[in-house]
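Hey, why these numbers?
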Amino acid sequence: MKIQRLDHLVLTVRDLEVSCQFYAQVLGMEVVTFGEGRKALHFGQQKINLHELGREFEPKAERATAGSADLCLLSETALTQVIEHLQQCGVEVLEGPVRRTGALGPIDSVYLRDPDGNLLEVSSMQSESTPASATQAAATQAATAAGLQLSVLAERLAVCRLEPTEPIPVWAVSGAFFAVVKTVEELSIVCPQSQVPDGVIHEANWQGFKVAGPLNFALTGILAALANPLAQAGISIFAVSTYDTDYLLVREQHLEQAIAVLRQAGHQVQA
């Protein structure tokens, strides 16, 4: 026997309507109806048949379940545009762009999930001579070219310094926003200014910007896209990064100027 190609595969989904809408709007597939009201997703020369969980067509997989698939889809659209489109659709990019090995050679991929939690890898073919860093740089440019979305934190913040031997104090970790970094040299804390006791060494009167996330770990230059225009305006910053996103702190007296500078640089700021 010699298998020529894959004709179609079957996805078990929890909600046919939700899945059809996702694959049509986010991935541009065509929803088709065939047989006795069956649904499929058509793209290129392939299709994905959809089975609704509990209402599968026979014969079926021995353990038909939703959310167990891991699919790689080749796209003719540049990954920079793919990432921008996913952002516009409100779909989180889990990882990428990253270099992977496809069936016919190197591919660059981004990862996301569908409504059932299936892992989807959207990829573009690459030549051996194209470095993965080039795709990552282009993706960063696409992510920042349209401007980042920021919001201003409500609370006034302080940056505190304690001795490295001191325990993390309760007052430092009771607010809605705080950050703690401990090294062999110091214990640094960012927290609401109103919670800092007298006698604690600190720099007061900071206001924070939150970058809308989550941000893709592969993206570079996100902070630079914000820090550079602020630096050109003579505004100093204090940066805090979390797993999901970045926070940028500026002095309270520079807040309004910083908002104007960031907006002029093409970013959207919700004050």
About this structure: The radius of gyration is 24 Å.
